[in-house]
Design a protein that fits this description.
185 residues, mainly alpha, 69% helix, 0% strand
């Protein structure tokens, strides 16, 4: 679950579920890119972090806005609304601007990290529209419903470990750097 958005019933909140999945995807992508390009891995995680913060503030702003309108009192929006909006602009958009302007991270992986939660939300909505997504109102089994019991979870973990080891295996047949030849001579 996203540490920024806490919900009593996270199973029915599509935003919390999408953020959880995008965090897992961002961590997996960063893990795969880390051996080859640590800057790209950091950029994906930075973009994901900025979008998680963006959704946190967006959630707060929407709740303040709808609760103010639901009361029907005709009062102006509370000061917290403007404070959350200003902090969101400063942190999210200022952070993205600073990362891009200073060149601290590569641009395309940062954009990938920024768009990862949106891609997950888009795919989640397609799955729901097509009827392939699990209904948030349906009961789920408390354990893995298969003859293998809970063996699927360790198998998935081992698969992820194997995928993370593949980039390092790709370097096993590479010739040593030129400096290693000079030291041997």
């Amino acid at each position: 679950m996203s540490p920024l958005l806490r919900d009593v019933n996270a199973a029915t909140n599509p935003l919390v579920r999408a953020l959880r999945m995008s965090w897992l995807s961002a961590i997996a992508l960063a893990g795969l890119l880390l051996p080859r390009s640590s800057g790209a891995a950091f950029a994906i995680l930075a973009g994901q972090s900025l979008m998680a913060i963006n959704f946190f503030f967006l959630d707060k702003l929407v709740k303040l806005f709808t609760h103010t309108l639901a009361k029907g009192s005709g009062k102006p929006l509370p000061g917290r609304f403007l404070a959350y909006g200003a902090i969101k602009v400063l942190v999210v958009y200022g952070g993205a601007f600073a990362l891009i302007r200073t060149g601290a991270v590569p641009f395309l992986p940062l954009v990938g990290g920024l768009s990862l939660p949106l891609a997950v939300l888009f795919l989640q909505s397609i799955m729901r529209a097509a009827g392939y997504a699990a209904s948030p109102f349906a009961r789920r089994a408390t354990s893995t419903a298969a003859t293998s019991g809970n063996a699927a979870k360790p198998a998935a973990f081992l698969l992820v470990l194997a995928l993370l080891a593949i980039p390092s295996l790709g370097h096993a047949g590479d010739p040593p750097p030129a400096s290693a030849h000079r030291e041997a001579a």
